[in-house]
Amino acid sequence: MIKPVVAIVGRPNVGKSTLFNRLVGERVSIVEDRPSITRDRIYGDSEWLGNPFIVIDTGGIELDDQSTIKAQMRYQAQVAIEEADVILFVVDVRAGLTNMDRDVAELLRQSNKPVILVANKAENNQEAEMNKYDFYELGFDDPQLISAEHGRRTGDLLDKLIEYFPEVEEELYDDDTIKISVIGRPNVGKSSLVNRILGEQRVIVSDIAGTTRDAIDTPFSHDDNDYVIIDTAGMRRRGKVDRGVEKYSVIRSLRAVDRSDVVLVVLDASEGLTDQDKKIAGYAHDEGKGVVIVVNKWDLVEKDTHTMNAYIEEIRYQAGFLNYAPIIFTSALTGKRVMEVLDIVNYVVEQHNRRISTNLLNKVIEDAVAMNQPPSNKHGKRMKIFYATQPRVKPPLFVLFVNDPELMHFSYKRYLENQIRGAFGFEGTPIKILARGR
Ligand code: GDP
Ligand code: GDP
């Protein structure tokens, strides 16, 4: 399902990220012990009264460091205007109206998007009721008084918000279709790669190319499999969105990741992984998507026998959390190894869907425990694993029934993950491990 997008906009310190956390906070995916990526989360799923939606905290979207606050805010408002179905414009009712609020308002008024004015930090009713009149000058409807920090009246805000939602778009493909998104910085060769894959004779591109708001979808068949490539670069090509300043559409990429089974993270061999790549790959990891790293423009690299290994080592070092992701070296220019990308995708899809029998799984866990005892707490209480099951695939989820889930330590979880991978592989797919009390 393609969900409506809500963007939170406003000057610094009004409480955008607090509101964001209030809206998506409890929904953080089941088991992640990796603090670095989630901290700068700018994008999350939420739901109100059965209406799922996506929230963007534009405060986390930044131009380069040298930009002024004003330029940052302009940029953030611009992203919101382009990406969102509804905009939450947050102001600080305690601080009152500022010129920065006026600047943001000016931009938002020029858009045709619905804007809800949110007056945050309204714990003190009297003060809030008095100050709210300041904000009428901005030309929006009555401000919604809330306290994001204390969760006050956010329900009323959400009631109002969902009234603005457009009809929800249905996902266009069935479950058997392998959905591949192609992400990476501009110019790394995403489109060239996609064109190469589609141009291959054994690939049959279907007549109808679906177009969503975020990407150009190209469905095709190959060796009896149905695929769709979700190409975020295609959009820009067709000139529908051109924002000049923007280097990399994070949000569009994240939305493409959301809709896919496997994410191809494409990079230019001469540049390596960028921070944005890592952020998006981290999101794919969190969301349990298959990930393949494609090092493109390999033709341009001067190589000896060590080059490829050195490259792999560097990527593993840069993005340790993706240590399961296959790395392939391609040239979209010469076509070298381009069709192998599809073979790897197929393999990753298989791993992503792989189910391990309860018997076999418990054998591996027992062996792991025998080799390396589970942790105990400071009172000497040790974790005991009774048994394990795999209730889910896409991504594989392993549930361990234990005496006390609190005793599970992330390092032990990582150990178990390594043992499971050692026994079964699971290349290209994240796996999730959840400890549960009986
Ligand atoms: P952002 O820069 O707009 O994302 O703002 P933050 O969410 O980081 O919040 C800025 C400051 O305002 C933090 O110190 C928050 O704790 C505080 N804050 C956020 N929401 C509220 C609220 O509802 N009431 C009060 N009193 N403080 C809040
Ligand atoms: P995108 O913005 O990621 O979609 O990148 P493009 O596919 O538009 O490619 C950007 C530029 O890099 C174009 O000039 C391509 O011809 C060139 N390019 C793409 N792939 C390769 C490659 O593997 N090797 C070389 N040498 N050039 C490439």
Automatic annotation (TrEMBL):
Pfam families: KH_dom-like, MMR_HSR1. InterPro entries: G_ENGA (IPR031166), GTP-bd (IPR006073), GTPase_Der (IPR016484), KH_dom-like (IPR032859), KH_dom-like_a/b (IPR015946), P-loop_NTPase (IPR027417), Small_GTP-bd (IPR005225). GO terms for biological process: ribosome biogenesis. GTP 2 binds at residues 184-191, 231-235, 296-299. Residues 4-169, 178-353 form the EngA-type G domain. GO terms for molecular function: GTP binding; ribosome binding. GTP 1 binds at residues 10-17, 57-61, 120-123. Keywords: GTP-binding, Nucleotide-binding, Repeat, Ribosome biogenesis. It comes from the Bacteria. PANTHER family: GTPASE DER (PTHR43834). Belongs to the TRAFAC class TrmE-Era-EngA-EngB-Septin-like GTPase superfamily. EngA (Der) GTPase family. Associates with the 50S ribosomal subunit. GTPase that plays an essential role in the late steps of ribosome biogenesis. This is GTPase Der. It comes from Orenia metallireducens. The gene is der.
